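Following the same procedure, sequence and fold were stored together, as reproduced here.

>
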Amino acid sequence: MQPRDTKALLLVGVFCAVVLVFWALLHQWTTSSPNTNGRSADCDTLAASKQDPDRTSDGVALEKLDPARALDACRQAIARSPNDPRLRYQLARAYEKNANFEQAASEYRKAAEAGYGAAQNHLGDLYFKGRDVPQDDTAAVAWYRKAALQGNAYAEYNLGAMYQLGRGVGKDPAQAVAWYRKAITWLRKEADKGNTEAQNALGMMYGGGQGVKTDPAEALAWYRKAALQDDASGQYNLGVMYQQGQGVENDPAQAMAWYRKAALQGFAPAQNALGSMYAHGLGVSLDYAQAMAWYRKAAEQDDAYGQYSLGLMYAHGRGVPQDYTQAAAWYRKAAQRGESQAQVNLGTLYLLGHGVGKDPALAASWYRKAAVQGDVYAQSSLGIMYDKGRGVQKDTAQAIAWYRKAAEQGNAYAKDRLRVLEDTGRR
């Protein structure tokens, strides 16, 4: 290199010194002051949902979400951007995984009321299931519709299901198909990109003939794609297909294998399924102790079906001494989270006075909660309560109304009583 002019070298030296000072100051600012973008990115990385079309990262399944890290990142992000509904939705997911369900519901609502589609769809789910909000099909439909009108495919699917079932809206097969078809276009694109949530959703649509021709083999193929990516929902769904022999030959051993993969990831539905296989000796030797162990794992995650299943084991003395007090305690936990079978069983315990003080009025109240969710046994039981005047004022019109709902679902006792009461009314 040729020597440069001394003055020029001095100028270069001064410039470099200024640059070094600038970078030192910049480093100080960025390390001593909160980095809003960084913390938002952390919240997105740790807590975004694959079901959220507006996510800014790949997303993480709820069972794989690290609640401690996600809560810290999302709280800090929201402290800097309190009006960002995406961050609130993700904070809600972190609260949900951490079993802070009331806080989760509150954050979902804030994000939903701010117009965030994924949060609106999830709030619809909470109302549909009666989880941490009163069970309300009409409210569920309203929130699904808000999200669906923004093009949220999962909400479009859910709205289609409500029209198919006639819950919160009049039963309308044409509307159901229309909404299912809106959903499938986006879901297929996402599924082809490897989105496991979309792959599972397509599996459900092909399995149930929702907006597409029923095709168990196609459903199986989509579930397998998700399962082979180590997705717990896909593994669980694949287990169901093997257990039920849909799209593949019935194979309880294969069902067990896939359930176990998902259960070991902490996926509560798979833990319940594994418990059920042990409880009934399907694919394995009957083992109530193992059934209890898997049900308890799900229950300890505050999973309503796991809590209900534990209650059932205590009520029947399977794997543990019969204990109606424990049964009532577990049924109550599940019932309060909207599990209709637990509501029915808790109602029956109050009716009989097993494990709780005898209280027909409370029995009727729990039957009602399950009946409005469409539980046929609860509808028939509530009909009996009105028919006999147990826990409620005797009311033949109400008895007929509830018997009719149960009869429409094929309940034999409700059909017989409905016929008797209607014949008596004509005389």
